[in-house]
Amino acid sequence: MLTVRDLTKIYTNRFDTQAGGVREASFDLPDGTFFTLLGPSGCGKTTTLRCVAGLERPDQGVIAVGDRVLFDGPKGIAVPLNERGIGMVFQSYAIWPHMTVFENIAFPLRVAKGRTPPREDIKRDVEQALSTVGLSGYGDRPATRLSGGQQQRVALARAIVHRPRLLLLDEPLSNLDAALREEMRIELRRLQQQIGVTTIYVTHDQSEALAMSDRIAVMEKGRIVQMGDPREIYFRPANVFVASFIGAANLLTGVCAEGVAPGAEGVVQMADGAAIPCLFPAGGTAGQPVTVSVRPESIALVSEGAVLRGEVTAVSFLGGSARYDVLVGDIVVRVVGGAERMVASGTSVGLSFPGSSAVVVG
Amino acid sequence: MNTALTWVRQDMRRVIAALVGIVLAVLMLPPLWILLQDSVTTTNAIGDVTGFTAGHFAKLFTDKDALRSIWNSLVFAGGSTVLSLTVGGILAWLVERTNAPFKILAYLATIVSLGTPYILHVIAWLFLLGKVGPLNDIYRAITGGTDSLFNVNSMAGMILIEGFLWSPLVFLLLGSTFRAANADMEEAARMSGATVLQTLRRVSLPLAMPAILALALFVFIRAIGGFEVPALVGMPGRIYVLTTDVYEATIVVPPDLGYAAAFSVVMVLIVAVLLYFYSRLSKNAEKYHSVTSKGFRPRPFDLGKGRWIAGAMIVANFCVVLLLPMITLLWMALLPFLRGFSLAALPMLSLKNFRTVFTAPGYVELATNSLLVAAAAATFIMAITALAGWIAARRGPGGWALDQLATLSLVFPGICLGVAVMEVYLRVPLPIYGSLWIIAIAYVIRFMPYGMRYVYSGVLQLHHELEEAAGVAGASSLTTLRRIVAPLLSPAIVAGWLFIFLVANKELAIAVLLASPGSQVIAVSIFDQWVNGQGGELAAFGLIWTVLMTAIACVFFVQGRRGGTDVFGN
Description:
- The structure holds two protein chains of two kinds.
- Chain A has eight helices and 21 strands.
- Chain A is of the alpha+beta class.
- Chain A is elongated and about 75 Å long.
């Protein structure tokens, strides 16, 4: 169990006035969780990771693994990073070029506090780590003669060889090409489940986060703005930022037609008079201005029972699906639908979606 | 006619390459040729070759003194290399990779030393460690005797002074190595459970080792060719090295130029072999470059309480390299004649020497001469190397040959190049010998490789598609050079100009044989004054000069940092 409480670390950058870092981040991760910190660059996700690793000293907060406190601001506890027993894969992999693959992986065992384990144990553990990442037989290779994907696997083997209780991954896939990235995504998730190690994964790629995680924390400007499982994050975005950062979102504005209880469905009156059904996670009062998020694939093109009406202004055939831009009043609504029967540009169409797919986000 | 014109237009690069090649060949080849020729021939009084001889080399390799000089050179260069690498290396690591305090002092000492003629430092340390200097004063005060603790005119004294002379350069070069190093490598080791010391020993040092070895070789080469310390510290103690032997053979009447040339050939050979290994090592160092992450700033090591010890080391270095020498020079400048630090001397302090510098004729002219010669040489070098470096870096026609020609003079220690240039231009029927021109030409030959290096690495940083896009857009190669390459390259050219300007104004060895009474430059004049015992005026003038050069060094340093290029173009 990893506990992070009120973690704060603020940078004042010399070059711009906006301070970076992380503010009051809190989360609890049950053992074996694959947890992703997701957000645009500069949102504080890497700072959070580095604070947990011990590479940065937080300004305040508490970090604990199980009952072992790694950092406690008020009590002045800060376990040095080399005594935290955490595995980490760096964005650049940081494979030491002056060592062989074997020596790279054996390093955490050799520098372990207390006595160095016997030679056979090191050999056994390294080989096991190598086979876990699918690199059996690569031990004698010089580290400089590895492809990007292999370096990545070596970095992973090095991070897990001493059986850490926590594994930290800092954008490990960002230096790989697209095809390899897809493959490693599945591979990483499989490995994590096989070992069962609690993992914090940092990325700015929302599809990676959705595909791999048990839980996702979306960060913006140093704060965690929403935390939940991937489906929750995608279908129930908590605010406009999350809705538009995770996948494509149509943002419609209007006013709440009548009072709605938290978590219930209600009706939003748009400026042109159309009334759309939607979910009010926090409830609403009559006349309150709101923004509603609807995913393009939740919208169907219909001839009857339409919620909104508009004209198709652009059509793209994407193979498995088709994408339409529909002009509704003065806003463009994006719709993704089946590609078997397509609607031509210029056609007048009706749009329909269930209230449960439209969420008030602000 | 028409077709010829078309051909020229189509491949202007070929024409440029040929012209630059001719200029470089005319400048760079004769000195080497003349040295080789002199070393195996006898000449009559007016310098005509009268016959071949192996006598110079025979004398060199049978003469006990000559063999001792070779041995002394190796000990001297080896010792000062070890000392400067230890001092400069530790300092660079502390400043770039730890949270030690007072880092600014390390930079300050380095910038000022970039602008100070070596000879001023040497003179200051000679005084500090010398018979009447504070070190031996304190020793005598403690023991009550009349003996000295330390004889500065010894091999130990030479190594000590030369080592500290080079440590700022080591600090700068290794500093950029440590700064460019991928901090992830060290953090990964720390995350794996390694302590700071384990990380240093098993990751940081092995990774920096190729760069450290290459730098060691570089300093060794420079120390072998060093002249200031052997001349001022070694010669009074009758300790001779190769450079001072060459100097002696040249200034005796009549000059034994054959013998000097043979000595020079030996040094050039040693340096050439070392340079070969140096280039191999530098290539090796590049092998360790790895994928770098998208710039999280490197986190310095936390030394804990040890940071105050580290801070003390930085302050101590600052005192030794900058503060003490400068105080010494000030003391010398304020006194009418040279004496040790003492309260009794305080009433004698006056600004008389400074007044003399500003009013006496000669000093202003001397300063103008020096600045003029250095500026002219730097300008000419950058103009030539901008073309040569561009063609070489882009593997244009004859690029390899241009590169070799422009960097040929790296094999010359300054004093040997002085001998060679003197010989060449004695025979040229133009009024160059005995004028400032000959010093300017020697500077051009000597510092051409630096200009080349700045431009070359500058071009490599430009994506070649920038030029190709200009070509596709319809620009000729001349237009591309003028409109695309030159503007983008200007930071590298400016940095190279400033660097050459600075080192040219520090250089003694190259000019000491070429300057004549009417055409002096700073370093030579300081040398003469020291030999003549005019310490006070020398120190006053030296201090003023140092302030001026430090201002230029600041510009250079800021420019280098801003341009993102390595200060030394490595």
